[in-house]
């Protein structure tokens, strides 16, 4: 595996965007929830990014981590991550008079700071926060300001530890990609050797090693996420993968038949299941969107479980859910804020006993 960046997730809706920006630099990264940080093995990681959060560091039950876990690595705190860093090291964070949301222009930059190399004064950065850093501990130097935020960025005097009040991962931050590249490449020293081809090769090898000759069952939706996951698993274990494609009656005209044929054309071991009537019955009379999503998810799991039980010696569940779906479907204590429920995220009944 090439160099790795660790992203500690405090529940921000932008966390997956941080990961995307890192991967666009051909650098591998992993997202781990803050409440699992004590379990992390840091071998191979060359830098850490602390994400934003819908929470306030001033909340009684604010998400916490032990910063000392990462003392040997370069670290970048983004928004909540920066406030947490400042607060834990002796600075002062307070509620803002008004929540700041939108673009702001940098009016002061430390030109000698590696993090801000090629980041221009007057460039726009994106703010989204309800707290502000009032004062820094003596061990930090201020490295950037905006007109309304005197401490927009800071650095530990003798270590590559940084905090920024804005979000460089969103496109509205004009030099955000440059700042992330400065941290990942210049400060952490990432080799930029990770590519999609390398990901495919390493993923197939890992799947072969982990699954061996055991059977896997997987539900396919016709979408990119589950389809890509199924093809990767198929390349690793072939017909030991059993795919199930459920017709929920909500697809486009003829889509079920066309997609099923496409899957067969890919060589996947797949079964199509007509469950339209079950979905229509459960949805009858429902109007509220979240209720509909939960009903669809409930029926999907029942149908999938019924079909999976017919397959012998299944030990594994294949899951093709992309990370944004996962973070949209769980609560901040999980750690991300719930946006909407996704039918394929809820998981299957524990009695199925699948790995």
Lay out the secondary structure.
Blueprint: E1 4-9, H1 15-24, E2 28-33, E3 45-50, E4 75-78, H2 80-88, E5 92-109, E6 124-135, E7 140-146, E8 153-156, E9 161-164, H3 176-187, H4 196-211, E10 215-220, H5 224-237, E11 241-247, H6 255-265, E12 270-274, H7 276-283, H8 289-308, E13 314-318, H9 323-329
Helix pairs in contact: 4-5, 7-8
The residue ranges in which pLDDT falls below 50 over 5 or more consecutive positions are 325-333
What best-fitting shape do the alpha-carbon axes yield? Answer: elongated
Strand content: 25-35%
N-end to C-end Cα span = 24 Å
List how many beta strands DSSP finds: 13
The radius of gyration over CA amounts to 23 Å
Helix content: 25-40%
Average pLDDT across residues?
89
State the order of secondary-structure elements, H for helix, E for strand: EHEEEHEEEEEHHEHEHEHHEH
Q: Helix count, per DSSP? A: 9
Could you describe the largest sheet, including whether it forms a barrel? 9 strands, mixed
């Amino acid at each position: 595996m090439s160099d790795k960046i660790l992203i500690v997730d405090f529940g921000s809706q932008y966390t997956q965007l941080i990961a995307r920006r890192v991967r666009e630099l051909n650098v591998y990264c992993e997202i781990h929830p803050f409440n699992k940080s004590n379990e992390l093995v840091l071998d191979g990681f060359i830098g850490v990014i602390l994400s934003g959060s819908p929470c306030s560091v001033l909340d009684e039950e604010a998400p916490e981590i032990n910063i000392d876990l990462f003392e040997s690595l370069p670290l970048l705190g983004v928004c909540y991550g920066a406030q947490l860093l400042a607060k834990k090291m002796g600075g002062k964070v307070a509620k803002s008079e008004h929540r700041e949301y939108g673009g702001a222009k940098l009016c002061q930059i430390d030109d000698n700071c590696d993090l801000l190399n090629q980041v221009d004064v007057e460039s726009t950065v994106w703010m989204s926060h309800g707290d502000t850093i009032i004062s820094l501990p003596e061990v930090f130097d201020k490295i950037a300001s905006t007109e309304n935020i005197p401490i927009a960025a800071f650095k530990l005097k003798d270590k590559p530890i940084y905090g920024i009040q804005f979000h460089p991962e969103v496109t509205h931050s004009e030099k955000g990609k440059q700042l992330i590249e400065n941290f990942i490449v210049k400060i952490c020293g990432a080799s930029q050797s990770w590519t999609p081809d390398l990901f495919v090769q390493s993923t197939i090898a890992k799947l072969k090693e982990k699954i061996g000759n055991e059977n896997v069952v997987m539900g396919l939706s016709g979408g990119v996420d589950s389809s890509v996951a199924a093809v990767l698993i198929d390349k690793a274990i072939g017909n030991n993968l059993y795919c199930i494609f459920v017709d929920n009656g909500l697809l486009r005209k003829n889509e079920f038949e066309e997609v099923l044929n496409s899957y067969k054309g890919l060589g996947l071991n797949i079964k199509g299941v007509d469950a339209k009537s079950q979905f229509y019955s459960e949805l009858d009379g429902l109007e509220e969107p979240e209720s509909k999503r939960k009903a669809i998810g409930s029926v999907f799991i029942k149908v999938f479980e019924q079909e999976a039980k017919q397959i012998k010696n299944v030990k594994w569940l294949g899951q093709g859910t992309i990370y944004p779906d996962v973070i949209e479907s769980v609560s901040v204590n999980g750690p991300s804020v719930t946006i909407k429920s996704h039918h394929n995220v809820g998981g299957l009944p524990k009695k199925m006993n699948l790995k």
